[in-house]
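Q: Got a minute? One more chain.
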Amino acid sequence: QLSFAACMLIGLFVHFASADEQPNEPSLVAVNQIEKTNSKEVEARKLRSRNQTPPGDGKEELLSKRFVMELGKLVDKDGERHSSTEKVILETRPAWAPIGVAHFHDLVANGFYDQCKFFRVLPDFMVQFGISGDPNVQKKWRKDILKDDPVKFSNNRGTVTYATAGPNTRTSQLFVNTNEKGNAFLDKQGFAPFAEVVEGMEFIDMIDAEYREKPDQGRIQQNGNKYLDKNFPNLSYIMTIREDKDDTPDTEGGGR
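A: Always. Here it is, folded:
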């Protein structure tokens, strides 16, 4: 019989494993992964990320920003689909993870997340997104690899964190923690939150979970929303994410 700890590790592998590329055997490294890629690409990502340093070293101060994320195709607890869009407010926390924050600011400024789908949704755990609907855009940004930020804040409910394929492999994929009690077990695995939902968490809870983990990451990478729209038409999605320059972020933070 498997021990409780072993069951937890296998469970994590099932939850986090991407359909992109999956190792032959679940290992202690593999179970910690959310975005899978082959070992050669992981090593290449590590090499590309080594020279990165946190923003602010000799540069202008990295400030917290507030963003409006407009969501479509939401479903309420009674299964009723909403025809209207709803708005969620995110605030970035440079003190938690400056490298991750700076990269997110850049991605949003370039419209990367517009029309992105929530391709993995696990109730009471997390919702994941961040593969562009345009394969050409995805190909460009997937080459921009981040060095890890140390974990300075726990994966509480409402925090936003990068998915990874191991150490120093963050790109554009993100997840929002939805567990009411948080996902603190992710902290020791190196998942560093960099932002949090400050308004509209009830709409994150309405993201459609119909397909769970069925969408294939590799096919999303290759064919974008064309593949998702054909095979998973009810996926909730991000219409746009835009900086809200009319409001001042709460620089303290604290999770939801």
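A: The longest strand covers residues 66-72.
Q: Perfect, thanks.
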